[in-house]
Amino acid sequence: SVIAVSNGGPWGDWAWPEMCPKGSYASGVSFKVEAPQGVMEDDTALNGIRLHCTRGGDPSGGYTAESQSGRWGRWSEAHWCPRRGPLLGFALRVQAPRHGLLSDEVAATSARFACSDGHVLEGPGSPWGQWGGWSPQCPRAVCGIQTRQEPARGLKSDDTALNDLRLFCC
């Protein structure tokens, strides 16, 4: 099954889904974030999310699942659920479309992930936008990811990068 939120950004297309290897599940996550660029510069905020997959609580597998990511920003360190428990759901912080002549659209700015023990992993995103509601929770674990990305639009344009997210349950 697929879990989603209702507050994702409107731009771009759904990229390819990517799954954790068979028999493993997501227990960690890292975030690709562009720092604020300053006045009159184009911000993209959250550019990508990478799931870190675990097999039976063993973190040494080193497998990741990552759908398309934007080209700006840097990857954070992995954030892990306690005792490598599974991720079950997520929420997005999104700046709603502003449609102003001089407004800088950024779409998704941060994400939170719910671990099976109730712990919440929050990304190092930007403070812009509003948190939406939590997605439904996977019954057992999250095993895959799909992102909605706006492709780079070229010089002097307003890029948003990551707009929305879907996760796949095992």
TrEMBL record:
* Pfam families per record: VOMI (PF03762)
Q: Enumerate the transmembrane spans.
A: none
Signal peptide start-end: none
**GO CC, alphabetical:** extracellular space
Q: Which SUPFAM superfamilies match?
A: Vitelline membrane outer protein-I (VMO-I)
InterPro entries the record matches: VOMI, VOMI_sf
PANTHER family membership = VITELLINE MEMBRANE OUTER LAYER PROTEIN 1 HOMOLOG (PTHR18841:SF2), VITELLINE MEMBRANE OUTER LAYER PROTEIN I-RELATED (PTHR18841)
Q: What is this protein called?
A: VMO1 protein
Lineage, broadest ranks: Eukaryota, Metazoa, Chordata, Craniata, Vertebrata
> What gene is behind this protein?
Vmo1_3
